[in-house]
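Here we describe the complex-level prediction in full. Unlike the single-chain runs in Section 2.1, the two entities below were treated as one system.
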Amino acid sequence: MYILGISAYYHDAAAAIIHNDKILAAAQEERFSRIKHDSSFPSNAIKYCLDEVGIDILSVEHVVFYDKPFLKFERLLETYLSFVPIGFLSFSKAIPIWMKEKLFQKYLLVKKLQELDEQFSKDKLLFSEHHLSHAASAFFASPFDEALILTMDGVGEWTSTSLAVGKGNDIRIQKEIDFPNSLGLLYSAFTYYCGFKVNSGEYKLMGLAPYGQPKYADLITSSLIDIKEDGSFRLNQKYFNYCVGLTMTSNRFSALFGSPIRKEGQQLTQFHMDVAASIQLVVEKIVIKLANAAQIETGLKNLCLAGGVALNCVANGKLLKEEIFDEIWIQPAAGDAGGAIGCALAAYHMHLKKPRFPVRPDSMQGSYLGPSYASEVVSSELQAAGAIFHEMSHDEMIDWTASQLVRDRVVGWFQGRMEFGPRALGGRSILANPKSDSMQKQLNLKIKYRESFRPFAPSILIEDLQAWFELDAASPYMLLVSSIREEHCKKLTDDEREISGTERLNITRSLIPAVTHVDYSARIQTVHSDTNPEFHRLISKFKEKSGCPILVNTSFNVRGEPIVGSPLDAFKCFMGTEMDVLVIGDYVLKKEDQNHDLINDYRDTFDLD
Amino acid sequence: MLSFLRELFEFIRVRKKFWLIPIFLVFFIFGGLIVLTEGSAVAPFIYTLF
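The structure predicted for the assembly as a whole is:
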């Protein structure tokens, strides 16, 4: 039985297809449309899913949408009513959209699906609640037969945080925290206040936090949020404006911190770093309290996480360190895209009551669920683009690529199926030597065209994890942050200790400076030979040549661009940046061989995020 | 349209939110007018709560 899951119309549109309880394919629409966080109906992603499986839409038993539009509209109306007459401007903008489209989402979905085949019946369409989709994406894809499930995001229909118990093929919601009290929106409010884009800049805020001191944490907990012992919380709406306004924070918020909202492009000061550190600390405390109280209440030993807040890998790392649970499993597509997988699995197990057979390490298959390209397709796409390339034997390609990395050359790495979720995990990655002192700056400024303070993540062979990091759990989806082991760190001199702000970046802190953040932490990806053998082989070869089992791994894109999807996207990105080498399958491309007329100014192609 | 109204009423019944009916009525009348008179509905740039 095939079930197609769809998430769309709000953030990251995506489609996923399952056959019974096996996830066969999943992809985000942005990778095809080339529009970052594309929220439109995922026609391309659906087409890919169906093609990958080799069926048409009529062969699908059910199509499931990840969210319930009527419930969302109810929340919208009740929110506006409770604030009336404030919020008329926001109301006048929102209601026409709903009256025109969103309220009729079922019919819109049916119409779009009938474009694939007009015989498609609307009776096949099901709807799952937003947080149930998240919870299902976390639990049903996890290796556990029984687990506590914690979902946290901005907001779904009403719910912003849910605690559920998953057992066998069922999920029971135990507790919910409703809008406007939301951990995701709280973090987004601070993202907005620090001058980053809401819904994409949260990562930057998290990356900025280690530069600061949590000086404002007490102010936040005393004024903005009331946190109870069980981790439940209430936001003081006096300071926020997202309920009925067109901004995240109110004037009182700025007055509380004594500084106006930072405008885009304005200098980041120590103040913003301290604010980032403060909200990060508060969020970590809440997540730990929520999980701890729920563990005590249920006695469950395993935890599953999903929802946008579960992408806060620093908080995840802290939660793991608390040792409240035996195991923690985090859905790699924890944001709304993952809802496509969750709603499909929820329909199969909960609506159709089909049994579940959990597998280890999990059923996400390394999250390599997107399209792959046969070598003849790669070669014809590259030829058509005017690329100069040559084919190597597989062993030769691995050896040559590792040699390039040892020589500090930056490599575009395009292999196998594309990752599902926001992280590049060695399928569509830019790789580099972590031992290089200048690599972090070089990658940020010359390859990714992004802010210099942002850290890079290490990909390490699972076998070497404990020799390098203070982490003893696998982190295949780059969702856990941990510290580098002391023996690999360099002691700072007194002068170095005096340095503050982003200048701290210039200090070499460890044997792997390119992936060592200013607090000696790193967002780790463990690489496993069973889920990504090519990447595992490459890092092993790099280790053989350099003694280091780690590579810098960043997503194959520039700032504001969706991660590359096709070989042509990869070639364009390669030619638009100062990347040295591109490896697609067994084809290798050197920048110096390419036609210089094809070099384009890529940095203005995409809107900055 | 008829099946939409049926589903909407079913939703109101299950959620026991009968007080929403007059609001929906007003919306359909005035909302319809707004939509008819407006060229395009521009989504606010802020977090997509809508």
